[in-house]
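Morning run. Coffee first, then this:
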Amino acid sequence: MPDYQIPSEVRYRIQTPNSSPRRIRVIALTDNDPEVASCRTYANVEFAMASGFAVLSQGSDTSAELDPEALNEWLGTPDTVVISGRDGDDARAIAIAARAYRMNGVTVSVVISPSDRKSNSTADMLRPYSTMMVLPTKAGYLGDLLSALGA
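And here it is:
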């Protein structure tokens, strides 16, 4: 028997972890993002490039103008989406995807790392569609976030 009193809140604690793993998708705004490249070792994470969606959405300003089957195939069925990029990256196409994810109730996190370009356009474009936006001051945050999500 312990020498201390057990708090009454103990009865509310979850005894077993969530049995279904999260489906996490990381979308890189650029094809050569070093932050994303360093995280490719996570086995339970799907990686995608924004350039793939840009080809799909070419000439469209909204998800309503896209082929629904092609859009659903590209979006997939993640629980959480993490969009990773740098200041000044072009996020116009992926903002359409982020909006579609949010309309479907998917958590959208955005990690915009600093770069030589001093522009907030990337963050400004994705901010309306993100559940959480992080503007870290140094590299490595994406890996920490994926670890915290249980990837």
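The domain at 21-148 is CATH 3.40.50.1440 (Rossmann fold). Good start to the day.
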